[in-house]
Write a structure and sequence with these properties.
Blueprint: E1 2-4, E2 15-17, H1 19-26, H2 30-41, E3 53-55, E4 68-71, H3 77-86, H4 104-121, H5 128-138, E5 141-144, E6 147-150, H6 153-166, H7 188-193, H8 198-219, H9 223-240, H10 247-253, H11 258-262, H12 267-275, H13 277-284, E7 299-306, E8 311-313, E9 316-327, E10 333-340, H14 348-360, E11 369-372, H15 379-392, E12 397-400
Parallel strand pairs: 7-11, 11-12
Antiparallel strand pairs: 1-2, 2-4, 3-4, 5-6, 7-9, 8-9, 9-10
Length: about 400
């Protein structure tokens, strides 16, 4: 397999050749190739050539757990010519990835480390210029985890030694082998001090978590009360499981904290759904969110509102209504009052007169879209906007708000 230390930056980093490809190129067994690589790692020649071998990143096996490979960029011209003559594919680009998945943050960190030592590598080893380069690089600020920081001089020296021994692939940060796994059963204090077997620890931690989940999901118990009850339960459970510690010693060992209790907070949604429907609807059910339009009078919202003011005109009662329009971008509101007698309602002519005031207002105009309810007073507006779209060669529309039933 041909290996590149970074698939996105192959032109900047060395390319590696594994033992299987080297064996296929020179028609020898992989066992003989691995032996030749081990000899080359100790400084001996192979067929009169010094093989530039390094330990491949992300590979394990063989003596000491290392898997050796050749840095093609450091091969002598004669050896490179032999490889190209025996295996013409070596002339092309090396695109094969590592045999493990690498995360983007690893590539970013590798590039950041290489950039940090680039000026140091440009100087000669054990020279005064290199010492000056170390100090200058250590004084150069860098963005580390979103904050401005500095690389220690000892850290830079370690990176340079790693690069000279393994190439740019050695600068690739390793992933944790236990990534994604829970490394603390209950708390660090309890894990470190309790004198129980591993299987007993796991059973106690599982039972404790189930007790806390049950209290929160069924009763909505507060974190403070969950911690108090679970601490007492854990002390008794440890004694029953065979712990040799006294009850006084188990008190601080079994102490729980808000961080431990906070891991069960999402079970409060289950309690709200099953026991408090109002709280569930108020806080858990998502609502529709609408962003403001980019420009004024892009969207105009219209509605008719009742006015709780008694108006008397002679013996017949008079009702007042407000035809209101609001610009969705600026929230500017236009209001037109309408006075109605017995048996009268808001007509399309009233809506047209109110819209004319919006269109002629310096803060208004003709909107591109109306957002209205399904009232009969707006019935002619959709047809009018369709005719306006044809006449003005622009898109005008009317959106009716509909009541959704469940």
């Amino acid at each position: 397999m041909l290996l590149a230390s970074n698939a996105r930056e192959r032109s900047c980093f060395p390319v590696f050749l594994t033992a299987s490809d080297f064996a296929a190129a020179f028609q020898i067994t992989e066992r003989a190739t691995r032996k030749a690589f081990e000899c080359a790692a100790s400084g001996r020649l192979w067929r009169g050539e010094a093989l530039p071998v390094v330990a491949l990143p992300g590979q394990r096996g063989g003596k000491g757990g290392a898997v050796w490979g050749i840095v093609l960029d450091k091969c002598s011209p004669a050896l490179r010519a032999k490889l190209e003559a025996v295996h013409p594919a070596f002339k092309g680009p090396f695109n094969a990835p590592l045999n493990r998945a690498l995360q983007p943050w690893q590539f970013e960190e590798q590039i950041a480390r290489l950039n940090a030592i680039q000026s140091i590598l440009a100087t000669e080893k054990r020279s005064t210029a290199r010492e000056i380069a170390y100090r200058q690089a250590a004084a150069q600020p860098h963005v580390i985890n979103g904050k401005i920081g500095y690389n220690a001089e000892n850290t830079l020296r370690d990176w340079v030694r790693t690069f000279e021994a393994k190439g740019a692939a050695g600068l690739m940060p390793a992933q944790r082998k236990d990534r994604g796994e829970k490394r603390v059963l209950i708390t660090q204090a309890w894990d470190g001090a309790i004198d129980l077997a591993d299987d007993s620890r796991a059973k106690l931690a599982q039972a404790l978590n189930e007790k806390a989940r049950s209290m929160i999901a069924n009763d909505g118990t507060s974190n403070r009360e969950v911690i108090r009850i679970c601490e007492r339960w854990l002390v008794c459970a440890c004694l029953d499981a065979g712990s040799q510690l006294s009850r006084a010693q188990l008190g601080p060992v079994c102490a729980l904290n808000q961080k431990w209790a906070g891991q069960f907070d999402h079970y409060r949604l289950l309690h709200a759904k099953t026991k408090d429907h109002k709280d569930w609807q108020d806080y858990a059910v998502p609502r529709i969110g609408r962003a403001l339009p980019d420009r004024p009078v892009d969207v105009l919202i219209g509605d008719v509102h009742y006015v709780d003011i008694a108006v008397a005109e002679g013996k017949a009662p008079v009702r007042a209504r407000l035809i209101a329009w609001m610009d969705a971008a600026s929230h500017f509101i236009w209001v037109t009052p309408v006075f109605l007698g017995k048996g009268q309602g808001v007509r399309q002519e009233d809506v047209a007169e109110s819209l004319s005031q919006v269109a002629l207002c310096p803060h208004g105009g003709i909107p591109l879209e109306y957002y209205l309810d399904n009232g009969s007073e707006y019935a002619a507006l959709s047809e009018a906007m369709a005719r306006l779209s044809v006449a003005a060669h622009m898109q005008f529309s009317v959106t009716l708000a509909r009541l959704q039933t469940h």
